[in-house]
Amino acid sequence: MVAPRHPWARYGGPVPLEALRAAEWVLREPGSGTRSTFESALACVPSIALETSSTTSLVGAALAGVGPAVVSARAVSAELEAGRLVEVGTGLDLLRPLTAVWAKDVRMSGPVAELLRIAAGAADQVSQANR
Question: Which among 16, 22, 30, 79 is most buried, taking Cβ atoms within 10 Å?
């Protein structure tokens, strides 16, 4: 995600890999799933403009123009809809697996079963969109 005044906000397609690798990023702390996924997809250690453990801080820094931020589109849906942030195409595979673990003799019910149903449905939608 970038602020609307960032040059990538007007880019017509995915930002070239070389530009992604040269950028100074606003990222989560080392060891976070989001950052690990991004670093693996980028295939290098990115330059860091700001490192934080807070999604709110990431969003604030991106809004302020500190640098591009790697954050879930769901976490910034209001900012995207209002045009305060712009989602940038990268061509990188940034999908993360979601794993649910429970005892095999326990049947999920109630809110837990609903959460698993929603997560599985979202995974199916992403899978179909990437075909």
Answer: 79
Whether 35 contacts 42, CB under 8 Å: no
What tens digit of pLDDT does each residue of 11-56 get? 889 999 999 999 999 999 998 988 999 999 999 999 999 999 999 9
Closest CA to 2 of 79, 109, 99, 91: 79
Say which residue the tokens 């019910």 belong to. Answer: 109
Contacts with 57 (C-beta within 8 Å, 6 or more apart), sequence order: 50
Residue 32 CA: distances (Å) to CA of 39, 52, 70, 101: 11, 10, 11, 19
Token match 């149903």: residue?
117
